[in-house]
């Protein structure tokens, strides 16, 4: 099969000629068939009356007119919108995972222990953590009262943000104002209490608290807080943080980084550079620490962005927002690199990839599944030059053939030994032929 492909499809011209020959062969077969068919099966002749009846019956019946009120089709649908009309706005930042991705591994996008926000609220396997949210709120309220802060201000702060909160989600939530405010206060204060206790800014006197004592719970919560469908707006957390008035020496981002660093393992100097980041939710905050926001960096260095009016030049650059496809580009690139178990092993051996899965097969399966059905605009990718350069370098040239030769014959000690032995055998055979021919044409002189 490889030799067949190489012979007939190694170039566009060979492929074109092969396809043309195949089409010509198919057409010739059809022509031969239809030429021979009437000879063996001649058509039946119909009398004139039968032909007339068949012609009359061949007409399609004229459909009766259907009355549909056009205004009924344009009336508003009363069902909850699964994708609101304003879901495309910049304020909408918490969306459902597309079905094309979720169907590959549905449990990868669902929280394991705690629901945050409305999308997974009320699920049976998340009720355990849900029961602790009121206890955490009670703890936070007690600390606020010790400081002389009215805890009712938490409700007031969230109520004023109801419109912003609803606008952050891509679908209609189907919740009354009271239900939404209650959910946001419980979820937001649960996150805030976690941040305060783990960072040591607030002391938890209950040393046997299962949330902090049982070793598997906090790592699971950290993972759940970084799921796209398991988010609350960052502006909500900021409002609760400022209203609680429990910490004034640190910002919310600092507490979030300290809590999540147990999983991400970055030096303090790394996080300190991102204390002033503005984010839409916790996942967006972490994303921005790894993806450079170029426009803001330039703005902080004094570069101003202004619109250029009345121009058709291709150099007229317009900036819309600071979103990027860096993560998607990275996933697509790694999925291209790792297609088999041997690819993962190769990158692990060269310390390019750290394998936390256990086996190379699991690494390969992970990247093949996460990279499946990824929609990537390569022209807008920050790795566009890398894709282009790798494809160009590896598609042609003498160095490609040299690399393939070296990989085939000298990739391991065994292939090297066999290739070296074959080379020696070839050299000895050549020498034997040479001396045999030399002795024939120039026999040694008798002394």
UniProtKB/TrEMBL annotation:
Key words of the record: Membrane, Transmembrane, Transmembrane helix
Pfam name, any one: DUF247
Residues that span the membrane, as ranges: 420-441
Top-rank taxon, per record: Eukaryota
Name this protein carries in UniProt: Uncharacterized protein
């Amino acid at each position: 099969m490889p030799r067949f492909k190489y012979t007939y499809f190694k170039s566009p011209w060979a492929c074109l000629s092969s396809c043309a020959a195949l089409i010509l062969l198919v057409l010739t077969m059809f022509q031969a068939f239809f030429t021979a068919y009437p000879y063996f099966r001649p058509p039946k002749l119909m009398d004139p009356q039968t032909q007339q009846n068949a012609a009359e019956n061949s007409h399609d019946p004229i459909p009766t007119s259907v009355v549909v009120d056009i205004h009924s089709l344009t009336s508003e649908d009363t069902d909850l919108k699964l994708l609101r009309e304003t879901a495309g706005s910049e304020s909408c930042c918490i969306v459902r995972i597309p079905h094309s991705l979720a169907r590959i591994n549905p449990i990868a996008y669902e929280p394991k222990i705690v629901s945050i926000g409305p999308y997974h609220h009320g699920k049976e396997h998340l009720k355990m953590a849900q029961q602790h949210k009121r206890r955490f709120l009670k703890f936070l309220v007690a600390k606020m009262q010790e400081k002389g802060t009215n805890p009712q201000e938490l409700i007031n702060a969230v109520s004023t943000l109801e419109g912003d909160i609803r606008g952050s989600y891509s679908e209609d939530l189907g919740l009354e104002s009271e239900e939404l405010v209650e959910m946001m206060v419980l979820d937001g204060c649960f996150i805030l209490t976690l941040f305060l206790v783990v960072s040591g800014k607030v002391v938890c006197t209950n040393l046997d608290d299962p949330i902090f004592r049982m070793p598997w719970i906090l790592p699971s919560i950290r993972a759940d807080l970084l799921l796209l469908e398991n988010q609350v707006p960052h502006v909500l957390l900021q409002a609760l943080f400022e209203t609680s008035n429990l910490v004034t020496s640190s910002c919310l981002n600092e507490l979030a980084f300290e809590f999540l660093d147990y999983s991400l393992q970055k030096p303090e100097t790394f996080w300190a550079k991102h204390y002033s980041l503005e984010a839409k939710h916790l996942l967006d905050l972490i994303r921005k620490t790894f993806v450079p926001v170029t426009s803001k960096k330039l703005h902080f260095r004094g570069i101003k962005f202004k619109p250029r009016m009345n121009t058709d030049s291709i150099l007229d650059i317009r900036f819309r927002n600071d979103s990027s496809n860096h993560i998607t580009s990275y996933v697509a690139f790694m999925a291209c690199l790792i297609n088999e178990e041997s690819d993962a092993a190769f990158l692990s051996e060269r310390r390019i990839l750290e394998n936390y899965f256990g086996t190379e097969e699991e690494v390969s399966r992970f990247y093949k599944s996460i990279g499946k059905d990824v929609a990537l605009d390569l022209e807008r990718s920050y790795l566009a030059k890398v894709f282009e350069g790798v494809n160009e370098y590896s598609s042609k040239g003498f160095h490609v053939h040299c690399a393939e030769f070296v990989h085939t014959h000298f990739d391991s000690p065994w292939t090297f030994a066999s290739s070296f032995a074959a080379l020696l055998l070839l050299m000895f055979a050549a020498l034997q032929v040479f001396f045999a021919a030399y002795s024939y044409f120039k026999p040694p002189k008798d002394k």
